[in-house]
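S1.2 Input.
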Amino acid sequence: MDLKYIGYTFKVAPKEPGTEILIAQLGFANFESFVENEDGVTAYIQEGDWNAEILNDIQILSSDEFEISYKQEVIEQTNWNSEWEKNFNQIQVDDLVSIRAPFHENPNLKYDIVIEPKMSFGTGHHETTHMMVQHLLDMDLTDKKTLDMGCGTGILAIFAEMKGAKPIDAIDIDNWCYQNSIENVERNNCKNINVFEGDASLLLNKKYDVIIANINRNILINDMEAYMNCLNENGTILFSGFYQDDIPIIDAEVSKYGLKIDKIIERNNWVALKYIFE
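S1.3 Output.
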């Protein structure tokens, strides 16, 4: 499944809060990756989710309070490596975990995750990944059967194995992510991670003690029943990839299945939620 992306590079003035508002509205329109720059943001959407009227409902574009211009392009797979090297910065979490590319210096923390990035997680990457790692740091994952749904580069699956989880399934619909996760699992010498290409239909008849889902809000809601059907009794589920304002929407769906919020981590208006059974 070789997916192409459509990229929109927006110049936004004033940049703040214009860029934040723009990203939030684009997220509702199924844009899934964002890279901020000094002038605004570049937003990416899968070609299959794109249509020529995709920006018609983005209200900020017609606002008198902001001046916004943009250009559009089709993003080929070969472009992503250079995009990553320009935009991907090393992540450090609580002086315990480093997430870095091979071209970053090793800070010699307790946990060191090395990834060769091949697609953009975007502006939320640092915030949501950082928060999910914080949740996992606080959990006992020893021998917990774990799912990393929408695994991207496989960072969270790799860290879960470092924390003792096994076996682990890592799933992503994007072929680039699937291939990249396999490479990164091998790079980090992981032995208990199985990587799959596909969507929530792969979860049929599966069961997990821990589910990690760092995905676009709309996808989370759409696939909620599938996640809940494969969560073991007394299991834990972690959600991120959305804003603080989205919590009531997510919580309304999750609470239908008898789970409650156990912990919320917030970072630059992005949030990560930990759910357990009531």
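S1.4 Remarks. The chain has two domains: 5-75, 126-277.
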